[in-house]
Every structure is written in C-alpha cells, then in structure tokens.
Amino acid sequence: MGHPLKEKLLKNAAFRKVYEEQYRALYGKLLSDGTAAGPLDELVTSYKLNDKADTEARTLRTFQETRTETLPSDKAISGA
C-alpha cells in the first residue's frame, strides 16, 4: 500500500531507519499480540444499532487479520 509521498520519504536512509523502527514497534504493540482486536470487538458491540455494522466490521477484521498475517514477512517488520 504505497503512497507517493511515503515512497519519496523512504528513499532517505535516515528516515527509512526511523520509519521501520516505529513500524516494527507499532506492529508489535497492536497486531502481533492481538491488542487491536479488543477495541474492534468493543466498537462492533456498541455499534450494532447500525445496519451496516456487521459488514463494516467483517471488512475491518479481515483487513486487520490480513495485516497481522502478512506483516511479519515485510522487511520493515522482520528487519531482514
């Protein structure tokens, strides 16, 4: 999921180093241990009054699960 500005900034080695360190830290805090799933579950529960809540929640959960599964192989996360 690239963005032109992000790609431009990542060409700078110093920026890339800090970016990858913070990306790894964020992944570790939110996704690798399942921390992000808790707030999502709470939001879905409180948002049930909306007819689209289930569909939106499934979409978000799928995105979250996909990121959790695929990011460990990302070189920014693995450090490889």
Report the C-alpha radius of gyration, rounded: 16 Å
Number of helices, where a helix is a run of at least 4 consecutive DSSP H or I residues:
5
The succession of helices and strands, N to C, reads HHHHH
**Low-confidence runs (pLDDT<50, min 5 residues)?**
none
Strand content: under 5%
The quaternary structure here is single chain
Give a short account of the largest sheet: none
The helix fraction, in percent, is: over 70%
Mean pLDDT: 83
Structural class of the helices, strands and pairings? mainly alpha
The 3D shape can be described as elongated
Q: Tally of extended strands?
A: 0
Instruction: Report, as a whole number of angstroms, the end-to-end distance.
Output: 19 Å
What does this structure look like?
With 80 residues, the protein is mainly alpha-helical. The protein contains five helices and no strands. The longest helix is centred in the N-terminal third of the chain and has 18 residues, at 13-30. The chain is elongated. It starts with a helix and ends with a helix.
Task: List its traits.
80 residues, 5 helices, mainly alpha
Question: How would you summarize the topology of this molecule?
Answer:
Elements: H1 4-10, H2 13-30, H3 37-46, H4 53-70, H5 75-78
Summed up, what is this model?
The protein is mostly helical. Helix content is 71%, strand content 0%.
